Predict the structure.
Amino acid sequence: MRSRHSLVLAAGLAVLVLSFLASLAFGAVALPIKEVARALAGGDVSGQVHEIAVGLRLPRTASAAAVGAALAVAGVLLQGALANPLASPDVIGVTGGAGFGATLILLAFPDQAPLVPLGALIFGLVAAGIVLTLGSAGPRGGSIERVVLAGIAIAALFGAATTSLMVAYPDRVSSAIGFLAGGLVSDGWSSLETSGPYLAAGFVGAVLLARPLDRLSLGDDLAASLGTSPRRTRLLAGIAAAALAAAAASIAGLLGFLGLIVPHLVRLAAGTATHRFLIPACAIVGAAVLLLGDTLARTVVAPIELPVGPLMVVLGVPWFLWLLRKTA
Amino acid sequence: MTAAHLLKAEGVRVEIAGLEIVEHADLELTAGRILAIVGPNGAGKSTLARALVGLQGAAGGSIAWAGKPLGKWRRRELARTRAFVPQRAPVSAGLTTRDAVAMGRAPHLGALQRPTAKDAAIVERAIARSGVEHLAERSLATLSGGELQRVRLAVALAQETPAIVLDEPTASLDLGAAAEMGRLLHDLAAEGLAVLVVVHDLALAAAIADEVVIVDRGRTVAHGEPADVLTSERLLETWGAAATLDIRRGATVFEVDWLASGARPEGAASTEGGLA
């Protein structure tokens, strides 16, 4: 059992390292992987290799890894906290809020486009804040149904607001499509810098929540018997997931599918649901999957870039269904 | 220490959604003894037990563990003093029995502290004690109701608390498994643990408990040794059943007139429960 866990972790790490290097090496100009590795290590390479790999591609590669890890960890936090395998950042309203925030700036204030990541981050957090507040208030507060129902309502509200914006500014809709489809852009370190603190807080929170979430999977009564507050654990997991998912959306738009599917992949592959294992494993696999997806999106029909969100869904669904059938 | 009450509850009142489920409950739990809470369906037994361990807020009265009011305990500290074994709990497919029992050590470990060899030994002992060694590597999703009940008890034993509170631990067990559970609780009490058990089965309660508290319509109406409390008059008054309990320590004969009072004396049936 334990060796199967180690195997999944080792395989995930190997794929992550390879996809990281591949992401730096492949693109409109292909670079030798050895050279890229040497450039990363600070070795002596030609100025052009260094410029492309480290100056141009590294911010995007690092962003892809961070976003992939953040979405997968947000998914596993929510699936554990809500005891629901269908949970993803969508259910606490983050995706709907971030989509609205970005669309608002792109359509209503197009000259403020650099504020898109900030708008997505703020509205993602606001939406999740409303959902978690509504979900935890009142005598039945903190129950799973309350949070999920509040999430559905708030997601619908922000979805309707986004659609209304599109109806109001039909001629500018095309500028928002990239964000809504989800995808990484090569814009240097700025969006990663804005979102960095939220990502860091979310990852630290996830590590601290691993054991309380494990206890929660024994049921609220046993968790409480063991000294864990189910309500507080759920709320904190929701906050950590919101920070991760909103930060991810501010960098790469709406890539919600990753947060749903990676935790399932890891659980199916490793045969365990303990969060002590799932959280680090999902971070690794999530980063690797998005790096691979982004590299593919940039290279299959280069120099045209495919939107990575839909591409990953199209490639990921058949694979996921196959795995589901094989293990069922 | 044995004379001191580990748990003392006075005038406990519990409301759920504006409805008074427990009106007035008094009880005391002492180390080395088994206290059984019995009563008809819907009397408020489980709600009372949940309030006693701090899983359900009380609207009135006082509950104190080791002399300290429930509200003053920190969660982890309380989890080192009492363990609760719920009647039901959701089952997580991705956890093995050992994963689950290992979580019983949580109140003794810091947030990021790794379990030591001593913790691992305690977990193995709890697994052995509950008789689930052969299920240690099995996924919880593959276990029967009775097996899960024993796993939940093992989690509580791994907590190493001086008191353990169980809600209907024999509800989904067959006769043999129920007797085994009764024997285990009896042994745990003999080792000095304070055991509070909410139980439906009066024959079992009478056989293993040192004291019985009867809860009827949210009130504790009788308290004492099984033979003094579970009288025919009481059984008729509280359960509306014509029955006699012949109580000897460890073995009980429960004679129930299943078909109304005296109409058909030949319809009487008897069941035996307790420790073999």
About this structure: The mean pLDDT of chain A is 89. Residues 2-327 of chain A form a domain with the ABC transporter involved in vitamin B12 uptake, BtuC fold (CATH 1.10.3470.10). The first helix of chain A runs from residue 2 to 25.
